Amino acid sequence: MHNNAVINLKDILNEVNLITSNCKIIAVSKTFSYEQIEPLIKNGHLHFGENKVQEAIIKWTGIKKSYPNLQLHMIGKLQNNKVKLAVQLFDYIHSLDNIRLAEKISTEQKKINKNLNIFIQVNIGNESQKNGINADNLKEFYRKCVDDFDLNIVGLMCIPPHSGNVKIYFDQMAQLNKDLSLSELSMGMSSDYLEAIKCGSTYVRIGSKIFGSRAK
Ligand SMILES: *Cc1c(COP(=O)(O)O)cnc(C)c1O
C-alpha cells in the first residue's frame, strides 16, 4: 500500500523491533481526519491517541463500532467536566494528574462498568507550565488512586523538558515505575522515541513522524 502514514509506521516498527518486542506504538491522530487515519486502521494498526475529548468523539465513535479491537488513548489534559464522555469513549487515559480527576473517573466508570487502563502523568522536570504529579508526591497519589478509587493504574507517563538530556528524565521515570512495581511506561514522541524505548518505555506516542506535520 502506497500510503505515507502506513510506510512511516512500518519504518518505525522495524526500528523499534530491533530494540524490543514489548513496546506499542500509539499513532497520535489529533488534528488529522478520518481519511488520513483510515489506511492505518485498514492495515491492522490498533492503538490511536487523541488529546481533545470533543474531537475524539466526533472522529472515533463510529469507527470504534466497526473496529471493536481498536484501542483509543486519551493523552491530553482531561477536564473534570469531560470525564463522563471520555470514560465512555477511551480505553486508556495517560493524563491522570490530580485527585479530583481520579475520583471523577472512578465514579463515572463504575456507573458503566468499565475499568480503564490509566497512567499517572508525572511532571518529571518539575516544570511550572507542565501538568503532572511531582515525583515527591507520587507514592501517596498512587496509593490513593488504588486504595480509595479502585483505579487500574498500569504505569506512569511523562512529557520531558524540551532542553537537556532526555535520557536523564526517562531513566528517572523507569526508576519511579520500578519503585511502584508498575509494568507500563508511556514516554517518547516523534523526536525521542528510540531513547525512550531504550530506557524501558512500553507505549510510545508518535504523531508527526507518522502523519506529517500538524497545521498550527
Ligand atoms: C501531540 C502529542 C504527542 C505526539 O507528538 P509528535 O511530536 O507529533 O510525535 C505525544 N504525546 C502527547 C501528550 C501529545 O500531545
Give the secondary structure arrangement, pairings included:
Blueprint: H1 4-17, E1 24-28, H2 34-42, E2 47-50, H3 53-66, E3 71-74, H4 83-89, E4 92-96, H5 99-111, E5 117-121, H6 138-147, E6 152-157, H7 166-179, E7 184-186, H8 193-198, E8 203-206, H9 208-211
Parallel strand pairs: 1-2, 1-8, 2-3, 3-4, 4-5, 5-6, 6-7
Pyridoxal-5'-phosphate binds next to strand 8 and helix 9.
Features:
alpha/beta; globular; about 220 residues; single chain; binds pyridoxal-5'-phosphate
Order of helices and strands: HEHEHEHEHEHEHEHEH
Radius of gyration: 17 Å
Bound ions, cofactors and other small molecules, one mention each: pyridoxal-5'-phosphate
Beta-strand percentage range:
15-25%
Q: Into which percent range does the helicity of residues fall?
A: 40-55%
CATH superfamily: Alanine racemase
By secondary-structure content and strand pairing, the structural class works out as alpha/beta
The number of E-state strands comes to 8
CATH topological fold name = TIM Barrel
